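ok so I'm stuck.
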Amino acid sequence: MADGSLLSAQLKIAGRLDARFFALLEALQQTGSINRAARTAGLSYKGAWLLLETACNLANEPLLETATGGAGGGGTRLTEAALGLLRAWQQIEAEHLEFVRAQETRLAQLPALHGLLRRMSMKTSARNQFAGTVTEVHVGPVSAQVTIALKAGGEITATMTSAAARRLKLKKGKEALALIKASAIVLVTDFAGWQLSARNQLAGSVSRVERGAVSSLVVLTLPGGAAITATVTNEGVEALGLEVGTPATAVFKAYAVMVAAQP
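replied:
not stuck anymore, here's the structure
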């Protein structure tokens, strides 16, 4: 599938023969050598033989033949049965790809679902990902400040370079993702009358504590149902008395927020 595709499906014949096997067959037809074909298909020599042996055992007739000398030289070649199987695969694969693309076109006509899948398809190491809509953008000579209203309620403010804000084409009403690493979040259970300079403060209650050898992952559920995860040392968990139901506030600086947006 092409990069950026939201739909993918693995095609197999007889429940076992997939794209790897047919890439091997195609390379074998071109090179006449199992060793070279394996390298071309990105397989080990042993792995290539295992695939070929499995297919040959499943087939009712031979798929490979060995040529010894002659005008075409020696080596391993595909039998007519194997060539027919390869041609059938190529035709089925083309029709399969056309079908998937047609379904993705239909998906694009469902904006809510399409947007959800776009957001879910992003791969990032940041544990916290919040979808929202840009409500404010203030661009200065060097830095920019962006406020995102979260779909689950509340808002997050991010600071970035002005160049980054322009590159992302951020403006009011544009959909965006706010990404925050769990290690960038501080949990506060009692402000004791103090006010913090950190712009982002999301109040909720502890819904889960995952203990590790040195640190724990603490999950807060926010009023709108969204969850935010922070990394806290085990000593910190004990000192703050963090357990399920404990009220707490996730605090993080605006510069700790990474913003993602479709061009």
